[in-house]
Write a structure and sequence with these properties.
This protein is α/β, with parallel strands linked by helices. The protein contains eleven helices and eleven strands. It has a seven-stranded parallel beta sheet with strand order 3-2-1-4-5-6-10, sandwiched between helices. It has a two-stranded parallel sheet with strand order 7-9.
């Protein structure tokens, strides 16, 4: 099969590209800065010669969007919004104009679309869209606005011959350098991976191989469309999440951090505390109902696998 992957040069894109290529598929990556074979230039905003790759392809997996690992300044928030909405819009236009449109369009979204909560997990049917919570920073609503605008472009695209799926993904954990697992592991190995602000906030996650398997599952299942949660079925509080990660690395102690300490850490990492403090408790209801089985449903085992793979991964040149 031919996969076209806009924004496929980031952490998740590299995970998908390696797996699909190893599986014998043709993978074409659309990139603002193409640098190798199989990469085609695009700007993520306007039609161009790249559209020819979509015409006649089997699957479009749109991962494009500015990284959320940044300070949430007005400029960065606007770039996060524009890069997602513009890329989804122009991908939809290319599919609509194709003489041979792909059979499925998988559009990256995010589990951040759901409200901050501790009491129950959000699935696709009963989950509550966020943006109206009390007792949380007001700017958190902007992240929900980004997600809803992102999905709206998918929903409204005039692509009647292409099935559309919004991938409401939790954090994808892979042993690659620079990804979220890498950052969390660095903190854990320094002894800083303790509870943040009490650690009651839930962490939803998905193992990189389960992410790829879910993508392949959704491609094969013609009966699945609309939003699908890509998250392991066992989210857990941040304090338990980091405890299991420390155990996998053989680190016995993790220093706790208050909210103001988390803010200082986020500032040093050029990130934002929403990524640490928002409780994301997400359940993969539609995947499980459709018969998908997770190879790594529980975090302790997943963490051990990722640490083992990281230890045996050659250093980045």
């Amino acid at each position: 099969m031919k996969f076209v992957v806009p924004g496929g040069t980031g952490q998740v894109g590299n995970v998908v590209r390696r797996a699909l290529t190893a599986g014998g598929h043709e993978v074409v990556v659309l990139s603002r800065r193409p640098s190798g074979p199989g990469e085609v230039p695009w700007d993520g905003r306007t039609p161009g010669a790249w559209s020819e790759e979509i015409d006649g392809s089997d699957v479009v997996l749109n991962l494009a969007g500015r990284s959320v690992s940044c300070r949430y300044t007005p400029e960065n928030l606007k770039a996060m919004m524009d890069s997602r909405v513009d890329s989804a819009r122009v991908v939809g236009e290319a599919i609509a104009a194709a003489a041979r449109p792909p059979k499925v369009w998988l559009q990256m979204s995010t589990a951040t679309i759901y409200t901050h909560r501790f009491d129950a997990a959000h699935d696709e049917d009963t989950g509550v869209i966020g943006g109206h919570e009390t007792g949380v920073p007001g700017y958190w609503a902007y992240s929900v606005g980004i997600a809803t605008a992102w999905e709206r472009e998918l929903e409204t695209a005039a692509t009647p011959h292409t099935r559309k799926v919004a991938l409401r993904s939790a954090m994808v954990m892979s042993p690659d350098r620079g990804g979220v697992f890498d950052v969390m592991s660095w903190l854990a190995r320094l002894g800083l991976g303790g509870p943040v602000a009490g650690g009651a906030q839930y962490v939803s996650w998905i193992h990189d191989r389960d992410f790829v398997r879910a993508v392949e599952f959704l491609v094969a299942r013609d009966d699945l469309a609309g939003p699908v949660n890509l998250a392991a079925p066992a989210p857990l509080p941040q304090r338990a999440f980091m405890r299991a990660l420390r155990s996998a690395w053989g680190v016995p102690v993790g220093l706790p951090a208050t909210k103001w300490m988390a803010e200082l850490g986020a500032l040093a990492l050029r990130s934002d505390t929403e990524l640490l403090l928002k409780s994301r408790r997400v359940a993969p209801g539609r995947l499980l109902a459709a018969g998908f089985t997770f190879e790594h449903p529980h975090w302790p085992g997943a963490a051990e696998d990722l640490v083992r793979r990281r230890r045996h991964r050659p250093p980045t040149p």
